[in-house]
C-alpha cells in the first residue's frame, strides 16, 4: 500500500511537468485548410486591414516612439508606408526589412487582402 508521502512524491513531479512544460503549437491557416478560399471582396480599412495591422504590427509600430519611426496605428500613418512602397515588400518578406521582425510572415490571405485594399486606392473606409 502506498503511503501519503509516496503519493505526494509522485504527484508533485507530475504536476510540475504538466504545468511547467506546456507546449505551444502553431499552424498556418493555409496549411490546415489549403482549399479555403480567401475572400478579398469588400475589403475595407476599418473592417479588414486595421485588424490585421493591429494584430501583427502595432505591438512595435504604434505609440509615441514606434520602432523604426514607422507608425501604423491609424489610416494616415499606414498610408505613409503604403505610398512610399515599403509596406508590401515588408509583409511579403521580399524587401530588406521583413515584417513582423523575427516572426512568421502574414498569411497569404491577409497579404492578399492588404494588397487588394491598396489596389483599390487604400481608402479610409
> What profile does the largest beta sheet have?
none
Give the SSE string.
HHHHHH
Shape: elongated
Amount of beta strand: under 5%
**Helix fraction bin:** 40-55%
Query: How far apart, in Å, are the first and last alpha carbons?
Result: 71 Å
Q: Total number of β-strand segments? A: 0
- From the helix content, strand content and strand pairing, which structural class follows? mainly alpha
By DSSP (H or I, 4+ residues per run), the number of helices equals: 6
How large is the radius of gyration?
A: 22 Å
Mean pLDDT: 87
Q: How many independent structural domains?
A: 1
Low-confidence stretches: none
Could you give a short description of this structure?
With 125 residues, the chain is an all-alpha fold. It contains six helices and no strands. It has one domain (28-119).
Amino acid at each position: 500500500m502506498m503511503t501519503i508521502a509516496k503519493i505526494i512524491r509522485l504527484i508533485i513531479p507530475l504536476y510540475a511537468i504538466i504545468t511547467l512544460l506546456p507546449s505551444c503549437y502553431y499552424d498556418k491557416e493555409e496549411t490546415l485548410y489549403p482549399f479555403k478560399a480567401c475572400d478579398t471582396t469588400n475589403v475595407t480599412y476599418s473592417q479588414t486591414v486595421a485588424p490585421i495591422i493591429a494584430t501583427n504590427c502595432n505591438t512595435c509600430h504604434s505609440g509615441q516612439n514606434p520602432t523604426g519611426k514607422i507608425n501604423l496605428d491609424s489610416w494616415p500613418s499606414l498610408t505613409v508606408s503604403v505610398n512610399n512602397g515599403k509596406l508590401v515588400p515588408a509583409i511579403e518578406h521580399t524587401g530588406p526589412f521583413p515584417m513582423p521582425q523575427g516572426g512568421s510572415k502574414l498569411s497569404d490571405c491577409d497579404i492578399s487582402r492588404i494588397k487588394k485594399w491598396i489596389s483599390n486606392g487604400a481608402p479610409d473606409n
